[in-house]
Amino acid sequence: MSVKGDLSSSEKQLFNVISTGNVQEASRLLGCKDVRVNCLDEYGMTPLMHAAYKGKTDMCKLLLQHGADVNCNEHEHGYTALMFAGLSGKTEITWLMLDAGAETDVVNSVGRTAAQMAAFVGQHDCVTVINNYFSRARLDYYSKPQGLEKEPKLPPKLAGPLHKIIMGTNLNPVKMVMLVEENPLLLEAEALDKCRRVMELICEKCIKQQEMNEVLAMKMHYISCVLGKCASFLKDRDDKLDGLTKSLLKGRDSDGFPVYQEKFIRECIRKFPYCDVTLLQQLVRSIAPVEIGNDPTALSVLTQAITGQVGFIDAEFCTSCGEKGAQKRCSACKMVVYCDKACQKLHWFTHKKVCKKLQEQREKQEAEAAKLRMQQSNEEDKEANEAADATQKLKLETNSNGNSAAETAKPVSSEDADN
């Protein structure tokens, strides 16, 4: 075991090189015989911890390739490389640590996990990555025959496309349908049924394992519901999944709210097979009292529970697929945003019914806001004028009082004195 602060000259140089991000020099130093990749500085930090905290992605890759221990927790406060990755806010480094086998449930000296540390400093994207991580190896288990099975539960060719869906952090059902449509291997009802069944098995395993993972179980159940709905559409209709997408996007005439999507997500949550799970009860308490069409929506509540995202107010989300960071607005109403023209075109069939109404609503709000600003400006001008008048009046009174005092204090002339 390495001793804290017991560093060779080359190891000290390595720590300095990490700060600069010089990968070539670091690679040269790691080739030296007197350099230990898991050496500890005086605080118990390894080179990997330093690289993760400083956000040096290439350096992290290099250190992991040379055998850096991703789960070392000799840090004086029990921090791990994954915790430092979360603190850095670099999602790619967070992925690297997880792919290297970083444990997510380890706590530091104040009892916080890596996800909790990232949330504490506002790095919610890293929280989302940690909470949604599911290794490919865990899925590949189902792509191999087990026991007396002649065929695996999941055909190996489906493991990749399914893993992409599992790792997604966007739980909007429209986005999931898009991911299914992107891969021809999934556009078969039989293939989707097999994927759905595997999701159900993973959900069951998450609940029955020694350390229950309610969040992952709920996510797997939700994915299984979406895949099941896709399979049923492929069986019953010839238009592939276009009908399902339109159903999920169709908004009501009054305000464009996607009623079917809301009902579908609520139904998915209601069908969760383990009624005693705390997460399910929390979701039901949050969603059940809310009338359909009001906030919070079922999607927002589910997303926050599963991914840990809390940035819904600060970020723009695509009205069609729910992707974060959408910037393209409808040129007419300017009230809805999209990822790109494809998403805008996909949503137009229902948005066009309320676009003019939303435009009028926006113009009315802008007019009222302008009127309010004008009133505030007038009030401020009035107050400024009143203050100026009061100041001027005070000056006049001061001058008047000063003149009176001067006259009172006027020296007595010699004539007056004689009289």
TrEMBL record:
Instruction: Name it.
Output: Ankyrin repeat and MYND domain containing 2a
Q: Which SMART domains match?
A: ANK (SM00248)
**Does the record carry Repeat as a key word?**
yes
Which gene specifies this protein's sequence?
Answer: ankmy2a
Q: Name one Pfam family in it.
A: zf-MYND
Q: Which organism is it from?
A: Takifugu rubripes (Japanese pufferfish)
Return the annotated region ranges for Disordered: 366-419
GO MF assignments: zinc ion binding
| ANK repeats, residue ranges | 43-75, 77-109
Its localization reads: Cell projection, Cilium
Compositionally biased region (Polar residues): 397-406
Cited Gene3D superfamilies: 6.10.140.2220, Ankyrin repeat-containing domain
Cross-referenced PANTHER family: ANKYRIN REPEAT AND MYND DOMAIN-CONTAINING PROTEIN 2 (PTHR24150:SF8)
MYND-type domain mapped to chain residues: 318-355
Q: Which PROSITE patterns match?
A: ANK_REP_REGION, ANK_REPEAT, ZF_MYND_1, ZF_MYND_2
Q: Name one GO cellular component term.
A: cilium
